[in-house]
Amino acid sequence: MPLKAVLFDMDGVLYDSMPNHATAWSEAATRFGLTMTPQEAYLHEGRTGHGTINILAQRHWHRDATQQEMEQIYKVKSEIFNTCPAPLPMPGAAELLQSISRLGLTIVLVTGSAQHSLLDRLAKDYPGIFAPERMVTAFDVKHGKPHPEPYLMGLEKAGVQASEAIVVENAPLGVEAAHAAGIFTIAVNTGPLDPNVLLDAGADVVLPREGGFSQALELIQQRQGTTAAE
Questions:
Q1: CATH number corresponding to 18-83
Q2: CA distance 30 to 105
Q3: Gap between the Cα atoms of 212 and 188, Å rounded
Q4: Domain 5-17+88-229: which CATH class?
Q5: What are the two backbone dihedrals, phi and then psi, of residue 148, each rounded to the nearest 5 degrees?
Q6: pLDDT digits 0-9 by tens, 90-149
Q7: pLDDT tens readout for residues 158-210
Q8: Residue 30 pLDDT greater than 90, yes or no
Q9: How many helices (H) and strands (E) does the chain have?
Q10: Which pLDDT band, with edges at 50, 70 and 90, does 230 fall under?
Q11: How far apart are CA 39 and CA 124, in angstroms?
Q12: Residues 6+ apart with CB under 8 A from 218
């Protein structure tokens, strides 16, 4: 099938924001008598905030968190996140997005984030790339990553089938969600994880942080070239 769309995660792909998230999750958990190491935060990356909190509650309190508890903990996590230095756009991301846009492909954002501080920056940092009607965030889904719902919704917003799209991710849960949705998935390993973690989650290819976006563009161009040759 012709390639028509590329679906992007946000944290760790468009923004170098995961160190801030890891710090915020660890500190917020501690304040509520829970435990999450910064390293563990990378394994939960892509999951909705409420989903992450519920896992911690089940582990430490042996029950689900109440709605009030989830809102309180996430509020504190967000407050800590917003005191961290503003995360910079990921090097190479803007060039990749601009190149994909010039190829005439539809670009869709698929993120588990509910951080307004980052979502509100997209138009400034990546002007003309992300239309509001082609964004899937934590506010839109019932089931966050690793459930396929976010990427299935992304396909719907792009108006394409799974075989007509490619996903660019960096997190194991995001890779798992994209794989479950049946989409070819490029994982750019921008964090501290072993590449095998991303392969085991279902990534079709894992690229390094350095030069990964350039290699991703080559793969996307090759896919288009294959389609044209056929």
A1: 1.10.150.240
A2: 44
A3: 6
A4: alpha beta
A5: -70, -10
A6: 999 999 999 999 999 999 999 987 767 777 889 899 999 999 899 999 888 889 899 999
A7: 999 999 999 999 999 999 999 999 999 999 999 888 999 999 999 999 999 99
A8: yes
A9: 11, 6
A10: very low
A11: 30
A12: none
How many CB atoms are closer than 10 A to CB 196? 10
Catalytic residue among 11, 120, 125, 200: 11
More confident residue, 138 or 73: 73
Tell which residue, 86, 90, 88, has the closest CA to residue 13: 90
* Residue pair 146/173 in contact by the 8 Å Cβ criterion: yes
Using N-to-C axis directions, what is the helix angle for 67-83 and 49-61, rounded to 10°? 120
Domain with CATH 3.40.50.1000 in the chain: 5-17+88-229
Q: Is the CA virtual torsion 98, 100, 102, 106 positive or negative?
A: negative
Catalytic residue check, 9: yes
Q: Can you tell me which residue has the tokens 């060039």?
A: 95
Q: Are 108 and 8 in contact (CB under 8 A)?
A: yes
Give catalytic status of residue 16 as yes or no. no
List, by residue range, all CATH 1.10.150.240 domains of the chain: 18-83
Supply the pTM of this predicted model: 0.85
| CB-CB contact of 32 with 134 (8 Å) | no
In the predicted structure, residue 27 carries a pLDDT above the cut 50: yes
